[in-house]
């Protein structure tokens, strides 16, 4: 079950400049900076009420974010929703005809298991499913 809007992911070219901009805009510093080696991205998170803003910058030419920014301008890259049980939601979405970009959930930033729904099956929006995990879990 989808439980809430977890975050909006914003693709940026210059993470330092974007962090400074959003620190000023939101009137607060980010609560977390993280490198996700498996995705070749650096991330910065801001808490905004019950949701978050995630800034993403690619760290290699092969990064999905770097490729995305080669075709599109900076801005909203994905919408992420918290789910209770990511594997159950993945199965439900497959059964409903959605195309998922990964067969199994993988570790993402901010202590989450994640899976993406292909934009072609979600009205042009890249949707991320997120399930909170303990840093001690090994899924």
TrEMBL record:
<dbReference type="Pfam" id="PF13669">
    <property type="entry name" value="Glyoxalase_4"/>
</dbReference>
<comment type="similarity">
    <text>Belongs to the methylmalonyl-CoA epimerase family.</text>
</comment>
<keyword id="KW-0479">Metal-binding</keyword>
<dbReference type="InterPro" id="IPR037523">
    <property type="entry name" value="VOC_core"/>
</dbReference>
<keyword id="KW-0413">Isomerase</keyword>
<dbReference type="GO" id="GO:0004493">
    <property type="term" value="F:methylmalonyl-CoA epimerase activity"/>
</dbReference>
<protein>
    <submittedName>
        <fullName>Methylmalonyl-CoA epimerase</fullName>
        <ecNumber>5.1.99.1</ecNumber>
    </submittedName>
</protein>
<dbReference type="InterPro" id="IPR051785">
    <property type="entry name" value="MMCE/EMCE_epimerase"/>
</dbReference>
<feature type="domain" description="VOC">
    <location>
        <begin position="4"/>
        <end position="132"/>
    </location>
</feature>
<dbReference type="InterPro" id="IPR029068">
    <property type="entry name" value="Glyas_Bleomycin-R_OHBP_Dase"/>
</dbReference>
<dbReference type="InterPro" id="IPR017515">
    <property type="entry name" value="MeMalonyl-CoA_epimerase"/>
</dbReference>
<dbReference type="GO" id="GO:0046872">
    <property type="term" value="F:metal ion binding"/>
</dbReference>
<dbReference type="GO" id="GO:0046491">
    <property type="term" value="P:L-methylmalonyl-CoA metabolic process"/>
</dbReference>
């Amino acid at each position: 079950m989808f439980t809430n809007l977890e975050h909006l992911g914003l693709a940026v070219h210059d993470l330092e400049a974007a962090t400074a901009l959003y620190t000023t805009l939101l009137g607060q510093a980010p609560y977390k900076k993280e490198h996700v080696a498996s995705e070749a991205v650096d991330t910065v998170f801001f808490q905004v009420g019950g949701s978050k803003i995630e800034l993403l910058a690619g760290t290699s030419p092969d990064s999905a974010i770097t490729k995305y920014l080669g075709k599109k301008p900076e801005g909203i890259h994905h919408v992420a929703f918290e789910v209770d049980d990511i594997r159950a939601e993945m199965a439900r979405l497959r059964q409903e005809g959605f195309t998922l970009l990964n067969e199994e959930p993988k570790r993402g930033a901010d202590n989450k298991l994640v899976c993406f729904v292909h934009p072609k099956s979600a009205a042009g929006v890249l949707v991320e499913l997120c399930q909170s995990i303990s840093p001690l879990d090994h899924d």
